[in-house]
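Model it.
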Amino acid sequence: MEIIRHASLKTAPWAGGTSRQIAAGPDPKNWDWRLSIADIAKAGPFTPMPGIDRIITVVEGELIALTVDGVEQALEKYRPFRFSGDSQTSASLPTGALKDLNLMTRRGSFKGYAAIIELSKKRPHPVFADQFAVLLQGSATVSPAVVTAATDDGDTSSAAPAAEALGKFDTVVGSEDAPEISGRGFLAVLSIDPVS
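Modeled.
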């Protein structure tokens, strides 16, 4: 079970604020997909990214006004928005500075998806391989999937997995073992699927 702690991420400046790369692959420097969280402190144009599909989600703050190829889109908190990195894009901040979650995928290599879900203490949410889950708000824990073991006499017993607390913007990396997140609050689930 892998957890990427938000506090451990390196901050890098960009024209509109700062960014923290959560993960990138298959090579972090020459990536075909990239997941990051950014602080946007000032309005302005986005850097063109030909061949890249983008999904942006406001995760702190109220609203960003994104103009994509001349058409303005008002993006509210927790509403993922997909657009092409080929597009001429600029942002204004009508309600002030904000934080957003960014998923970028190289067209033809990977396809990205983003969903915001409400967590439940009674119904854990699994995080599968090729997924990342970012705690946006609330209180949550992550546990490895329950392991059932057979004893010599054929009885089965379930080992209680140890739960780890998640902090705001901590990221759980999905795996074949599907770690499970439970608690109260909101979670961004980002899927990165290879294109065949």
